[in-house]
Amino acid sequence: MSRRETIEEKRRRAAAVLRRLARAYPDARCSLDYSSPLELLVATVLSAQCTDVRVNQVTPALFRKYRTAADYARAPAGALENDIRQTGFFNSKAKSLRRAGAVMAAEYGERVPDTLEALVRLPGVGRKTANVILGNAFGKDEGFVVDTHVARVSRRLGFTRETDPVRIERDLSTLVAKGRRTLAAHQLIFHGRQICVARRPRCAICPVNPLCPKVGVPLEIRRAAETPGSRRSAAGSRA
Length: 239
Hints:
Layout: H1 7-24, H2 37-46, H3 52-65, H4 69-73, H5 79-83, H6 90-107, H7 116-119, H8 127-137, H9 148-156, H10 165-175, H11 181-194, H12 219-226, H13 230-238
Helix pairs in contact: 2-8, 9-11
């Protein structure tokens, strides 16, 4: 049985992984289109159980129609639901946006609050959404965004054994310092979408293959990734 990594060894490996991901995904950023904290909040709420591509198709017209928190709070019954129908779960999302808009209008002068504690008190806003807003709209790089891609990739990399997003965030925050977490999350998300996919990760062409223990990856995929020349041939087929 191999020796377990110390926390310092894991931090060094995490730093090396992120350096490789930075080279692989130099344009990694938030995939949602927005021009204000309110627009990012709305887009992130809509992105639950929906792709960012679909959300970005819906939000241009939505943002033209609803410009303030109060606009969402006052949206007529059925109107907001119809406007966001394409994102799925539109009834619950509309309810959250109305209630969050009302709170922001009443308590924050229609502004989006800029602390984790205040954000997670808004209806429909959890830690993931709050960290997205803080890191991208306010430049407050404190927490770590944990979506399905970050959770999957960080477990395969051996950075966490947890399945609960809050515990995964805790583990990742011990490895990545403040000031680096927002970008690191984007890079892990890009990697999870393009290479470290759920069913058959593309280990043979993975830029962090040598640094990854491939926790939970099927044995045949791990063996294929270790075959001499496999990364070269796979990369050629990708071109």
